[in-house]
Amino acid sequence: MSMAPSSANDPAVLEVTDLHVEFDTYGGIVKAVRGASFNVRRGKTLAIVGESGCGKSVTVQSVMGLIPMPPGRITKGTALLDGVDIVRRKVIDGKDIRGNRIGMIFQDPMSSLNPTMRIGDQIAETLHVHRGYSKADAFKRAVELLALTNIREAEKRAKQYPFSFSGGMLQRAMIAMAIACEPDLLIADEPSTALDVTIQAQILDLLKELQERNNMAIILITHDLAVVARMADDVVVMYAGEIVEKGSVDDIFYRSAHPYTLGLRAAMPSESRHVESGLQPIEGSPPDTFNPPPGCSYFARCPNAMRLCERNPPPRFEVSPHHYSNCWLHEPGAPKDVDGLYFAEQP
């Protein structure tokens, strides 16, 4: 686990502020992301965590311009890439930032790669479009990138089609494509979900190695807290389209300040937990995003909910420097006897 969270004085590669994303459906308007704000700094890894459907992937896909519009739309917010708002402008200095300044590893490499094109050609296409390489030079560089991601016999593999690759090799090929243009920011959306434990560890180690080599920022989207502990410097916890807690990785694991974060930790397998006790699931279901609750989104599932929480959305409380929680329990006068929850030290 990281012991060196990024400094607030370091310049942010990407800074997202008050992002709101909606989708028009036959059943009404889905409010998928509601006021998300975060930043990620060069050479650091920001993890976005939460259960399925909480808005993690939609948040970054909307910033990248990868959600269909319509039915999707960004109703509010900015996303500054080195000071340029890429919500409204995807081309900087005549070049599309996608695949160039920002690389992305998608959840399912099998469905993200073109089954009719050779692996090397797909990687080379990125270099040809964004860097102006000739086809021969681009393919040569594609072979080098496959070798860099620890694919053996890279020249032979570059001439093969996706069906010839295992799941782990496909993920490595996706990484090679994502880093081809040496991006400032790499977005990894569940990069190890479909892989076995051994291959998962190799992929995560590879991402760390490439980050150190290129000093790039990484946004890691995952529901796996073990991956967060291994990779992240800073963490944001999302629930029902909102960020409910953010801080360093040590804050989130050792000083959890939101009941939802405590619930995620309790549901995580642990060597210290007795087999008889089992995992502790979070009872209930997330709220309806067609009609989000007027107060705290976690109210219906929170074991520490108060009457205040039902109708009043909690503000952002600073628990400690750079550690924030959206929970009324941090209001002065609220109960402070919640087992496991971290509170700011009173003066």
Distance between the termini: 30 Å
Largest sheet: 8 strands, mixed
Summing up helix and strand content along with how strands pair, one would put the structural category as alpha/beta
Enumerate the strands of the largest sheet in spatial order, edge to edge or round the barrel.
Answer: 8-9-10-3-11-12-14-13
Q: What would you say this structure looks like, in words?
A:
The chain has 347 residues and is α/β, with parallel strands linked by helices. The protein has a domain at 242-330. Helices cover 29% and strands 24% of the residues. The chain contains 11 helices and 14 strands. It has helices at 56-64, 109-112, 119-131, 135-148, 154-158, 167-178, 197-214, 225-231, 249-254, 259-266, 307-311; strands spanning 12-25, 28-41, 45-49, 72-81, 84-85, 91-92, 95-96, 102-105, 185-189, 217-222, 234-239, 242-248, 317-320, 323-325. A hairpin with a 2-residue loop joins strand 11 (234-239) and strand 12. The longest helix is centred in the middle third of the chain and has 18 residues, at 197-214. It starts with 11 loop residues before the first strand and ends in a 22-residue tail after the last strand.
